[in-house]
Every structure is written in C-alpha cells, then in structure tokens.
Amino acid sequence: MPDALLADTQAEALHNILAQHVGLEGPLLPILHAVQEEFDHIPAAAVPVIADHLNIGRAEVHGVVSFYHDFRDLPAGRHVVKICRAEACQAMGVNQMADDALQKLGLEWHGTSKDGAVTIEPVYCLGLCASGPAAMVDDTLHGRLTAEKLETLLAEASA
Q1: Are 49 and 84 within one domain?
Q2: Strand ranges in 21-143 using DSSP code E only, listed in sequence order
Q3: What's the Cα-to-Cα distance from 16 to each of 19, 44, 50, 124, 143, rounded to whole Å?
Q4: How confident is the model at residue 155 (pLDDT cuts 50, 70, 90)?
Q5: Is 4 annotated as a binding residue?
Q6: Sign of CA dihedral 132, 71, 140, 107
Q7: How many domains does the chain contain in total?
Q8: Where, in this chain's numbering, is [2Fe-2S] cluster bound (predicted)?
Q9: Residue 23, domain extent
Q10: Is the Cβ–Cβ distance between 62 and 48 less than 8 Å?
Q11: 34: annotated binding-site residue?
C-alpha cells in the first residue's frame, strides 16, 4: 500500500487533507495545494494515495503536478526566488540575468542550493510587465531588475 511509503505523521496529515476535501467538486487542485502547503512539496508517495482516493489514475495526478509550475516534487529551499520568463521581461534582458544567476549559484532551474537556502524557479508572468524584468523572492515582488539588483536579492536570500 502506498501509505506505507509515507511516515505515519505524513500519512495521517494526508488523510486529514483528503477528508477535508470530501464532496468538493473538482478537488484535485485544492488537494494538491493543501498537500504542498503541509509538506512543502508533493511527496511521490502521496500521488497514488490521492489517485486512489479520487478514483483517478496516478498518471493524471502526476500530470497535473508536473504541468503547474507552482507544484514541486522536492522540498524548496528556505527562500524561493522566481524569475519572470515572460516576453516582456525577456525583451528587457532577463534571459542573460537569469543565465548569469543560475551559473553563479551553480544551479539549474528548479534547483536548490546545497545549503538549502535558495530555490530558483522560472515563472511565466508576475504581472509586472511595465516594470520588467521582474522577480519574486518568497512573496515579495521586485521590478525593474538589473543584474546588480538580482545579485543582491540572491545574496540576501542566500544569507
């Protein structure tokens, strides 16, 4: 049984989440958001439990998790830095800034620094198109980024 792959406390928390969503129409996304909030990611062992509970295929659950960039399958770092990759920010030079930041951190997109301080993720619009390039550190938006501003944000997140 997939529950056996979850720690007892994780299995209990997952079952509580599932119980809170009984009777909700279209519950998969709300369940996934609640699971991620509880565990800081969607544990692989939770996917079959969720699928069985909703009477859907594991592939469907996995497909939703992998489609939406806000869901992650590994815990994030203490700080999450999201860099806008939308066209308006690209037109303002974000691609080079992002490439430089990833190289400096020694990470790929969705990677977490070895010390667990920073996870860096691409997003495809932060709604600051007129103030691009833009990034979000945890829940704080930052517009009109320069390479120096981004480097400062990353240094502060890494501290």
Answers
A1: no
A2: 79-84, 118-123, 135-137, 140-142
A3: 5, 18, 12, 33, 39
A4: very high
A5: no
A6: negative
A7: 2
A8: 84, 89, 125, 129
A9: 2-67
A10: no
A11: no
